Amino acid sequence: MINQLTLIGVGLIGGSFALDLKQRGLVNTVVGVDVNAQNLRDALALGVIDHAHTEINAASVGAADLVLIATPVSTLPEICAALTAYLSPRTIISDVGSTKQSALNAFRTHLPQHFAYCVAAHPIAGSEKSGAVAAYTGLFKQKKVILCPHEQQDSGSLKKVETLWQAIGAEVHDMNVAEHDAIFAAVSHLPHLFAFAYVHQMLDNPKGTEYLKFAGSGFRDFTRIAGSHPQMWTDIVLENRDMLLKLLSEHLAQLAYLQTCLHNQDVEKLYQYFAEAKQLRETWGQSH
Ligand SMILES: NC(=O)c1ccc[n+]([C@@H]2O[C@H](COP(=O)([O-])OP(=O)(O)OC[C@H]3O[C@@H](n4cnc5c(N)ncnc54)[C@H](O)[C@@H]3O)[C@@H](O)[C@H]2O)c1
Ligand SMILES: O=C(O)C(=O)C[C@]1(C(=O)O)C=C[C@@H](O)C=C1
């Protein structure tokens, strides 16, 4: 139970977290801070937040027990720098960003006195939608949340954040930050790059829009995530750039292999390649 949550960035993820806490009676007051005034009006109307502010100041942050930063990952340094003047000594700071080395760097650099109370977190749940209007209760039910504890971590703050995520139905895992960024480069960031690239290829094809009139569920399934917010993904791929560059060059080898198989009309190799991928996808699908 917390008295005041201050949510910086009242969008899909932060808004859904606030709605879940409210529904379970785990928070008394939610204060929203966002740069988008219309989004704040939507959030108030939908009951996602109780009070709206467009700035970080004593009124929005001073009385917070927990400040949750749920903005695009590139904004963390400026937000942490702005927070430092207004935090109470024991306010817990956490985030939900998709890259975690960048979050820890921002906490360490811009909130050095408060670093022990900063908890880097990442819910593995979401969608291609954004804004307070997209927020809903139950988004995190039975979904994983990764916490990346650091060397100066206050154990009480870590426990508090863990308990809140568990209380709204999430399954919490602790993970080393480098491992986090390597895993999510492979299972989330790279697939988003492919989806954007694939849709872009249709844009670059003079007949692409004509062809798309005939596209079916294969195209729909493969490209849903290309509808995700461009700022969010520009930030993520730049923050995890080194891992992605490595994975992209490995993937070029996969494409080159397929190109060779096709060129040689190598039925056996193509069949084997598809069968191996199908097996892994089915095994994964049975447990997810
Ligand atoms: N969407 C997903 O599937 C998903 C899943 C897990 C984690 N995340 C991470 O969660 C974070 C938020 O993503 P989202 O999907 O909720 O995005 P969103 O676009 O729905 O919400 C972000 C909000 O932050 C606001 N904002 C932007 N800059 C700001 C600033 N400087 N100060 C205050 N508010 C600001 C925007 O106006 C917007 O309302 C991102 O860091 C993202 O990487 C997203
Ligand atoms: O379902 C989607 O649309 C998502 O992209 C969610 C998704 C993912 O890649 O699985 C996206 C980014 C996050 O950091 C976590 C979850």
UniProtKB/TrEMBL annotation:
Keyword NAD: yes
SUPFAM superfamilies, alphabetized: 6-phosphogluconate dehydrogenase C-terminal domain-like, NAD(P)-binding Rossmann-fold domains
E.C. no: 1.3.1.12
Transmembrane segments: none
Keyword Endoplasmic reticulum in record: no
This protein's pathway: Amino-acid biosynthesis; L-tyrosine biosynthesis; (4-hydroxyphenyl)pyruvate from prephenate (NAD(+) route): step 1/1
GO function terms (MF aspect): NAD+ binding; prephenate dehydrogenase (NAD+) activity; prephenate dehydrogenase (NADP+) activity
One GO term (biological process): tyrosine biosynthetic process
Ranges for domain Prephenate/arogenate dehydrogenase: 3-288
Broad enzyme group: oxidoreductase
Keywords from the UniProt entry: Amino-acid biosynthesis, Aromatic amino acid biosynthesis, NAD, Oxidoreductase, Tyrosine biosynthesis
Reactions the enzyme catalyzes: prephenate + NAD(+) = 3-(4-hydroxyphenyl)pyruvate + CO2 + NADH
Family: Belongs to the prephenate/arogenate dehydrogenase family.
Protein name: prephenate dehydrogenase
Organism of derivation: Alysiella crassa
